[in-house]
Design goal:
Helix content: 25-40%
Shape: elongated
Number of helices: 7
Oligomer: single chain
Largest sheet: 4 strands, mixed
Strand content: 15-25%
Strand order of the largest sheet: 5-4-7-9
Order of helices and strands: HEEEHHHHHEEEEEHEEE
Number of domains: 2
Length: 232
């Protein structure tokens, strides 16, 4: 039955990835899509306001006790030991954020927490700020040996980290421009003290303050080796 959970989370993930997409706000239209799984008829809730796909049959479902139709259907149909221990209100809140929020970082975090709950992770764990954090990779020197950061511009969410890897043309380091970082951020604390001399050496830093960060490689600054980090 966990298959049902994964299908629903997958549908939500696909919907939330469309930044400009809007879902009709029709509280009376909540449909369950009828499909055949292993020879048996199964019901899968569609996003509120979504019309029944052409060529398929759907059933109308009403909302219950403040819980979305999708969440009520999942709770009603998922009959496992996990279902008995799930915090359904917390799951409902996170899935609503995935659907309704216009902020990418909020949706990404909510999706990670919802997936964690569906997998049996405790609420106390998924509620920790670092639970949904990610680490982005940046190469120091291109594969062909150019003195550049790859990519030259990345965007992360607050609480995420960046890992720089000495790739080619070293030694390299990461030094942030004190005049081009958010106010109040300690430039020395986030910059490297030393240089990475061996290929494969890494430097990782976590960022908690939103804003634009400009940085450069000190040994190759004259060659234009600089980049930009955006923290949302």
């Amino acid at each position: 039955m966990i298959f049902k959970t994964l299908v629903i989370l997958g549908l939500l993930g696909n919907a939330s990835a469309k930044l400009g997409a809007k879902v009709e706000n029709d509280s009376d239209l909540h449909l369950d899509l009828e499909v055949i799984v292993n020879g048996e008829r199964e019901l899968f809730p569609l996003l509120p306001g979504t019309k029944c796909p052409t060529g398929h049959h759907c059933r109308v479902r009403n909302t219950h006790a403040g819980m979305s139709a999708m969440m009520f259907s999942l709770k009603d149909n998922l009959k496992t030991e996990l279902a008995a221990t799930l915090d359904w209100n917390e799951l409902n809140t996170n899935l609503n954020t995935v659907v309704a929020s216009s902020d990418y970082c909020s949706r990404r975090s909510a999706m990670a927490r919802a997936a964690g709950l569906a997998a049996g992770v405790a609420v106390s764990t998924i509620s920790q700020p670092a639970y949904a954090a990610e680490t982005k990779d940046v190469k120091m020197g291109s594969d062909s040996g150019q003195l550049v950061f790859v990519p030259a511009k990345i965007t992360i969410c607050k609480g995420d980290s960046v890992k720089w890897t000495n790739n080619k043309g070293g030694p390299h380091n990461v030094v942030f421009d004190e005049d081009a970082i958010p106010a109040g951020v300690n430039q020395e604390k986030i910059s490297m003290d030393d240089q990475l001399g061996e290929e494969g050496d890494t430097f990782t830093m976590k960022f908690d303050e939103a804003g634009e960060y400009q940085y450069y490689c000190e040994p190759h600054r004259g060659a234009g080796m600089g980049a930009v980090l955006i923290v949302q």
